[in-house]
Design a protein that fits this description.
Elements: E1 2-11, H1 15-26, E2 31-35, E3 48-49, H2 51-59, H3 63-69, E4 79-82, H4 85-89, E5 117-118, H5 121-134, E6 138-141, E7 143-150, E8 155-161, E9 167-177, H6 184-189, E10 193-198, E11 202-208, H7 212-215, E12 222-227, E13 230-236, E14 242-248, H8 262-273, E15 281-288, E16 291-295, E17 299-300, E18 303-305, E19 311-312, H9 320-339, H10 349-368, H11 382-395, H12 415-419, H13 426-429, E20 444-447, E21 450-453, E22 462-466, H14 471-484, E23 488-494, E24 499-500, H15 505-510, E25 517-520, E26 526-530, H16 537-548
Parallel strand pairs: 1-2, 1-9, 2-6, 4-12, 9-18, 22-23, 23-24
Antiparallel strand pairs: 3-5, 7-8, 8-9, 10-16, 11-14, 11-15, 12-13, 13-14, 16-19, 17-18, 20-21, 22-25, 25-26
Helix pairs in contact: 1-5, 1-9, 9-10, 14-16
């Protein structure tokens, strides 16, 4: 039996596992990914990538490739309901051009360098796979993890090539379990889950039918059909000939999966379409249950749960895959820091502290977006509308604050600046105003004649962005970086600074004075901010960095 060694073993080659491989590679960390299936997903599954996830993909240079992969789906917006798809669609006038719509209040959401995009999981995963291979990732499909054990210094896993039945052993410093909702690894670790459980029973019917003329200029995202003989939800996939219908069935009424043959499903889809003469080809029928379940722990020793292995939620909030991608982005820089000896392994405990509350929150919100059958609720009651408004920050990937040892929550920003606002800005409403634990503020700046986002400076190292008069803070950074053997970069932002921007632009966005600064982690979250230059800045900055890296006593 062959034996190999790798810093990180990733079990699961879906959208989360592939993203983990890419994020680790971006930090220079080698990994081995194993996936029991022979290739990437052949089913659409997730149908969108939110703004924050596109920021993460921009950071590793694949955002445009991801957007291009979903070009055929990009015009699909709007959620409707009726007694058939034809009834709903024919009730809308055709648009002269088909393309991503200008959403009402789009200027309100100018909070990042990229927008989210419509794209299905089976479109995204080949992009991630190609990029991961380009980065030198060791990706092995048709290989499964059949056993593992962890000791004080490593994880030992037994792998089996499913085509040859040849087994091998891998020793890894750490292991990421991105092995799906059923997660054998989670079960083996004995980690329990909590939550509402299954909300309904659905059949995910992937089918081919040429509806291009029907939907041309009237593209939709989701359409709920509710009639006595059939209830379900249509989801557009390519706005031409590939579609999904989530068919609801009820075991309490004696209905079973075996009752729904391909022939019966074909007729039910035709009824829901309102097009009994159309030619339909059923490609697959996958039973599934919209579920709200969250693992009680995301870490057990040297093993970490991510994606559906950590949290399951109905897809109607559009947050299942993107929450998992945020999981591994949070984890990647921490693993890199520990493996390089820049941080103690206590830093890894902040993964659970930071990501578990977010996983629980978005799972509960996604569950609340479902009706009694587990389908998307399109209720127009005032309470339902308010609930949607409340969820908006999470839908686009923001609206939460990390609290852990890897965040220095000391805030010297004056109370009046943080609280007094006659008209709050979008960044303040979404919690993107520079507070420690939030995603760093975005503004456009000029760096060496290039127009970039402040977010484009992040990802490889700790970055300190000071106000226009923050020379003292910037001068302290190289000394602290050398003392701690940590990668750190410093910039000033202002009309005559390295980052050229209008006077006060960065200070206003970050909640600092012209002599203050924001310290940002490699994952783009604010680790610490100071309104002005603190006494003994070298010692203060060193203490902050030691705390964030869990090196302080």
């Amino acid at each position: 039996m062959s034996i190999s060694h790798v810093p990180v073993l990733i079990v699961g080659g879906g959208i989360v596992g592939l993203s983990a491989s890419l994020f680790l590679s971006s930090h220079g960390i080698e990994s081995l990914l194993v996936e029991r299936h022979t290739g990437t997903s052949i089913h659409p599954r997730a149908r969108g990538v939110n703004r924050r996830t596109m920021e993460l993909y921009r950071g590793i240079g694949i955002d445009e490739a991801v957007r291009a992969a979903g070009a055929s789906l990009s015009p699909s917006f709007g959620m409707y309901q009726g007694s058939s798809l034809v009834e709903v669609i024919e009730g809308h006038a055709r648009k002269e051009t088909s393309g991503p719509p200008k959403m009402p209040g789009a200027a309100f959401f100018d909070i990042g360098p990229v927008d989210g995009t419509r794209v299905t999981q089976d479109m995204v995963e080949p992009v991630l796979l190609a990029a991961a291979r380009d980065q030198g990732g060791d990706l092995r499909f048709n290989v499964e993890c059949i056993a593992f054990e962890q000791g004080n210094n490593r994880v030992t896993a037994t792998l089996r090539d499913r085509s040859s039945n040849v087994e091998s052993t891998v020793h890894a410093a750490y292991m990421i379990a991105a092995d799906g909702a059923g997660s054998p690894i989670r079960q083996n670790l004995g980690i329990q889950t909590t939550g509402a459980g299954a909300l309904g029973h659905l059949l995910n019917i992937l089918f081919e039918a040429d509806l291009s003329e029907l939907v041309r200029g009237r593209e939709f995202s989701l359409c709920l059909v509710d009639r006595p003989e059939v209830k379900g939800l249509f989801a557009s996939i390519n706005n031409h000939d590939v579609w999904v219908f989530h068919l609801s069935y009820d075991p309490q009424k004696g209905e079973e999966i075996k009752d729904f043959s391909p022939e019966r499903c074909r007729e039910l889809v035709k009824t829901a379409l309102g097009m009994h003469e159309i030619e339909i080809k059923i490609k697959s029928i996958l039973p599934w249950e919209p579920t709200v379940q969250v693992a009680e722990k995301f870490q057990r020793g040297r093993l970490f749960l991510a994606g559906d292995a950590a949290h399951q939620m109905p897809p109607w909030g559009g947050q299942g895959a993107t929450t998992g991608i945020a999981d591994v982005h949070n984890l990647a820089w921490k693993l890199a820091a520990v493996l390089r000896g820049q941080a103690t392994d206590s830093l890894l405990t902040t993964y659970d502290a930071e990501r578990l509350p977010i996983g629980r929150l978005v799972a509960e919100e996604s569950g609340a977006a479902s009706d009694k059958q587990g389908l998307l609720s399109l209720s127009k009651s005032p309470w339902a509308i308010l609930a949607v408004i409340y969820r908006v920050p999470r839908l686009i990937g923001y609206g939460y604050i990390y609290t852990s040892r890897a965040i220095d929550a000391e805030d010297t920003t004056p109370w009046f600046w943080r609280t007094v606002r006659v008209v709050p800005t979008p960044t303040q409403i979404l919690g993107l105003c520079g507070k420690a634990g939030t995603r760093a503020p975005h503004i456009w700046v000029q760096l060496e004649s290039r127009r970039i986002s402040t977010l484009d400076l992040l990802g490889k190292s700790f970055v300190l962005i000071a106000g226009s008069d923050g020379d003292d803070l910037c001068e302290a950074v190289p000394k602290v970086a050398s003392s701690l053997a940590v990668d750190m970069v410093a910039y000033r932002a202002g009309p005559s600074c390295e980052l050229v921007t209008s006077k006060g632009s960065w200070e206003s966005s970050a909640g600092i004075s012209s002599r203050g600064a924001t310290l940002i982690r490699p994952d783009g979250f604010v680790a610490w901010r100071t309104w002005s230059v603190p006494p003994d800045i070298h010692q203060k900055l060193e203490d902050v960095m030691k705390g964030v890296l869990c090196r302080s006593v």
